[in-house]
Amino acid sequence: MTHLTIENKKYVLIPEESYQELQKTAALKHHPEKTFSINEARAHSKKLIGKWATENNNK
Questions:
Q1: Which residues contact 2 (CB under 8 A, 6 or more apart)?
Q2: Which of 9, 26, 16, 20 has the alpha carbon at shortest distance from 1?
Q3: Quick one: CA dihedral 12, 17, 23, 28, positive or negative?
Q4: Average pLDDT of the chain to the nearest whole number
Q5: pLDDT value at residue 32
Q6: pLDDT in the model for residue 18
Q7: What domain of life is recorded for the organism (predicted)?
Q8: Short-list 34, 57, 55, CA closest to 47
């Protein structure tokens, strides 16, 4: 591992194999947000539209 300082910023150089390994472990820890199926998205949209409509009718 090599340390560099360029314009008062510190950098670290590591071998490519170590970098690839770090990327793999980071990717395994990442949990993407749940996406809806088309039917779930339609149901969710209708629910939100209904909620919005009732709020606007009461004003």
A1: 12, 13
A2: 16
A3: negative
A4: 90
A5: 77
A6: 93
A7: Bacteria
A8: 55
Cα torsion 7, 8, 14, 20 to 10°: value is -80
Interval 9-36 mean pLDDT: 90
Structure tokens at 10: 């510190």
pLDDT at 30: 79
Residue 56 pLDDT greater than 90, yes or no: no
Residue given tokens 């970098």 in the structure block: 19
Ramachandran category for residue 3: left, alpha or beta (phi over 0 → left; psi -120 to 50 → alpha): beta
What is the pairing mode between strands 9-13 and 2-6? antiparallel
Provide mean pLDDT across the span 34-50: 93
d(C-alpha 34, C-alpha 39), whole Å: 14
